[in-house]
Amino acid sequence: MPIVKVIEVIASSETSFDDAIKNCLEEVSKTVHNIDSIYVKDFKVHVKDGKLASYGVICKVSFRVDKS
What we know:
It holds the Pfam family Dodecin. It comes from Flavisolibacter ginsengisoli DSM 18119. This is Flavin-binding protein dodecin. InterPro entries: Dodecin (IPR009923), Dodecin-like (IPR025543), Dodecin-like_sf (IPR036694). The chain is 18% helix and 56% strand. By secondary structure, it is an alpha+beta fold. It has one domain: 2-Layer Sandwich (Dodecin subunit-like). The chain has a 3-stranded antiparallel β-sheet, with helices on one face. The radius of gyration is 14 Å and the shape is elongated. The protein starts with a strand and ends with a strand.
């Protein structure tokens, strides 16, 4: 029976929410393997001078733990 671990990650993009999620996967994939899913827990935008400056997502990343 596989063990699944969940970590929470904050990622951002200057372009879109979709890019922020892709950035999350790209960065987490550098150190975490066997990723099964990404659950987007929350969205946010940063505003600068009355305009959208960046898009942010808070994600829960689920991955299977390797057996020893």
